[in-house]
Design brief:
By secondary structure, the protein is of the alpha+beta class. The protein contains 7 helices and 6 strands. The strands form 2 sheets. It has a 3-stranded antiparallel sheet with strand order 1-3-2. It has a 3-stranded antiparallel sheet with strand order 4-5-6. The mean pLDDT is about 85.
Amino acid sequence: MENDAIGAGVLNGGLFNTTEIRILICYILNSIKEPVPAAMLANILHFEGIANGFEVSDAISSLTKNGHIAPVDGDESYYEITDSGAAIAEELDSSLSLTVRKRAYIATLKMLAKIKNARGTRFCLSNENGHSYLTCSAVDGKITLIEIKILIPDEKSGTYIREKFLENPSEIFSDIIEKLSK
């Protein structure tokens, strides 16, 4: 296939063809089986070096216009696969390299896990008596289930800890509860 996509930020082995990018998006949505935020999908594929973020956004627009993917409940921030998009994914996914499919699938799963984890977790950066703190809370609606307050050297460290925390907050909270209950 001819390279017709913008290649800025795309690593060797990534996608430089707009058709392949469209197929990949259909493959991801068909494999994940749940709505995916379009902007985050464009960012994750770009940061993984799989496809240019602008090209992914254009592909999402094209796939939507052609009825292969659709916004969830009219909200254009989350998209899901349609029957015609699923057919494309099933017929053409083998035209993409296994490495690209696997990297994109794993990156998307991690992104969705962070989104789900963020829904049940609350963070607060604060300064008290000249010290910076990050408070991490597990919440269920308006009820705080557990909360920890961590002394941090600076806001950058707080952001890093928050990101690591979001990778698996339930494991962190479970470990704390297990240690306290021994």
